[in-house]
Amino acid sequence: MACHYLSKSNYECTLTKGGVFIPLQAHFDQFCLTDSFMLCGHYCRLAAPLGDSDSPYVSEQLQGRGRRQFIRKQQQFSVGLCPCGPSGSVESGCDENARILDYSQGGVRVLASRAIAESDMLSFRFGRDFIVPELHGLAVVRWQKPAAVGDAERWEAGLAFESHLVKALIAVQMNM
How far is 47 from 70, CA to CA, in rounded Å? Predict the structure, then answer.
């Protein structure tokens, strides 16, 4: 298995903080094109899960945070959520007024106007106010619970991104 941040068309690393990272051939052979890509220093700094205690770049204060894999940022943004089938085809019942409560490169915590079945696939489209404006893709519902906000009953849910590209784009923006 090769690193999912490697652009095979031009052999660049798509995980950057601005600019371009073009690994040398020895780096390709040792990390990018092998199962050892998670040992790459570039990957460890920008994309490694927080719980990876083997990584020399994970700070001590972030280790041992339970099930969290990535740093979360609490900031609200608009997001549209639509249930979709396994093929990604959008079904009816979209929630265009959902809000992101916090986000990470792995997923988002949202506040929705109605319950979403766990393990359902959702199509999402972030608003123009998000760190990557109008980014869209697919996510899986990992958990949900009722969240009373004012007089209206709303639902809080955790969504995990399905696309490595979405994860990479958010990781780059979070590290800028």
Answer: 8
Main-chain dihedrals φ then ψ at residue 89, nearest 5 degrees: -75, 125
Give tens-digit pLDDT for 149-168.
665 678 899 999 988 888 88
Strands (E), the chain: 6-7, 12-13, 73-84, 95-103, 107-112, 121-126, 136-149, 152-161
Domain with CATH 2.40.10.220 in the chain: 73-174
Residue 151 CA: distances (Å) to CA of 25, 147, 148: 60, 11, 7
pLDDT in tens, 79-120: 999 988 777 777 777 888 899 999 998 999 999 988 877 657
- Extract the tokens encoding 153: 């009953």
Q: Which CATH number fits domain 73-174: 3.40.50.720, 2.40.160.50, 2.40.10.220, 1.10.150.20?
A: 2.40.10.220
Query: For the chain, first and last CA: distance in Å?
Result: 28
Q: Note the pTM of the prediction, 2 decimals.
A: 0.62
Q: State how far Cα 36 lies from the chain centre.
A: 21
